[in-house]
Amino acid sequence: MSDTLAFEANEAGVYEFEPGIYLNLPEDQYHADTSFGSTSIKTMAVDIFEFQFDRLYGEDKDTDALVFGSALHARMLEGREAFLSRFCTEFDKSKHPNALVTTDDLKQWLDQHGQRGISGKRKDDLIKAALDVDPDLDILDVLKARWEKENEGKTALKPKRWAQVDVAARWVQRDPLLSAVMEDGTFIAGAPEVSVFYVDRGVRLKARFDRLLRHAIVDVKSFAPRTPGPIDGPNGSALKAINNMRYDIQSADYLRAWKYAKELHQQGLVFGDEPYGGFLAECFARDEPKWIWIMVKSTGAPQPLVIDWVAKFAKARAAEQVEAAIDSYIQLRDAYGDDQEWPPMRPAMTADDTDLPSYFGR
User: Fold this and answer.
1) Angle formed at CA 30 by CA 24 and CA 31, multiple of 5 degrees
2) What is the pLDDT of residues 2-20, one digit of tens each?
3) 216-223 and 290-297 as β-strands: parallel, antiparallel, unpaired?
4) What H or E segment, with its residue span, contains residue 257?
5) Alpha carbon 100 to chain centroid, angstroms
6) pLDDT of residue 338
7) Per-residue confidence band for 116, with pLDDT thresholds at 50, 70 and 90
8) In Å, what is the CA distance from 278 to each residue of 5, 11, 97, 268, 271?
9) Which residue of 44, 74, 320, 350 pairs with 83 in a disulfide if CB–CB is 3.0 to 4.6 A?
């Protein structure tokens, strides 16, 4: 494939991509575009007033969950090399049990090696003096500084998180449905992180397919079960996570974007190289792709579950919610302004006994 696509942001660091399909678009450039993605659409559908409040004042983010999800995406969708270029394990001082740590450690070592006049020196000077005697001496500050230089710009993962990413990649590849399209814990078929930008009724929208296969869209999600128990089955934690996080709405938004992408492909609005000639034509030679979730548990053992999403009525309901969300956005934007607060105008609620849930007061 070609080198990564290169575009320039405006003075505010914002990108505004023209409608089209973009292959090899850097993740940071995709997110820096102000079009509404699936997370925004989901938030609109669930509570559009929360959506606008977050836009104006910033949203609450679970940083650890986001980092784990990004690491998992890099490892499984882009490959080991891409993962190692962006992530590393935290510096672990326990791997250097004999390293000198404190000022007293350094003074004692220097005294044992015949160095005098060190009592009033700062730690930096003591380190320099010790290295003059033995350049290969293990000093924790030096080892950590070396680690920081070697891993500059990378995101550090705790050892357990690192193991979870590695194990999850290996376990997912063992799945019979995916083993033929994966190698070394990474997808080898299709195209990774395919970005789509399009406009609907004047609203700029976007989507980024985790992995686009000829016949399917693969979406990788990490989730933390609320209670112990199996992750599969109708009552398993994976389906509960999809329902609780409303990933079904995100899925519907992606499938909607896929249909727009089909039109964009027909118009020749494709930027970047396909995995091979005719790949996108093969993708769009159908009415709709399959939707496949790879759900990976983010707590404890990173157990994966592959879900072939064929729930006809649930998909239709989610698609309706996506359309309703965009309609609501347009109405409220036109009524109040895109950069203003949108106050909810609800009538007072009267609650009698028949309105109360069965658990109330127990």
Assistant:
1) 145
2) 345 667 777 777 889 999 9
3) parallel
4) helix 247-266
5) 39
6) 94
7) confident
8) 20, 37, 57, 12, 14
9) 74
Our measurement of the distance from residue 330's CA atom to the centroid of its chain's CA atoms, rounded to an integer in Å, reads 28
Q: For 106-115, how does the pLDDT look when each residue is reduced to its tens digit (9 = 90+)? A: 989 998 888 8
For tokens 């106050």, the residue is: 343
What is the distance between the alpha carbons of residues 60 and 67, in angstroms, rounded to a whole number? 14
pLDDT reported for residue 345: 85
Could you give phi then psi for residue 97, rounded to 5 degrees? -65, -25
Q: Do 313 and 251 have their domain in common?
A: yes
The CATH number for 182's domain is: 3.90.320.10
Give CA separation, 187 vs 116, 208, 220, in Å: 61, 16, 12
Query: Domain of 41?
Result: 20-86+158-336
Average pLDDT over every residue of 215-223:
96
Paired residues of 293 in beta bridges: 219, 307
327 domain-assigned: yes
DSSP assignment of 29-62 equals: HHHHB-SB-HHHHHHHHH-HHHHHHHHHH-----
Neighbours of 203 (CB within 10 A): 13
Contact indicator for 23, 271 with CB cutoff of 8 Å: yes
Query: What is the structure's pLDDT at 8?
Result: 74
- Residue 276 confidence (pLDDT) above 90: yes
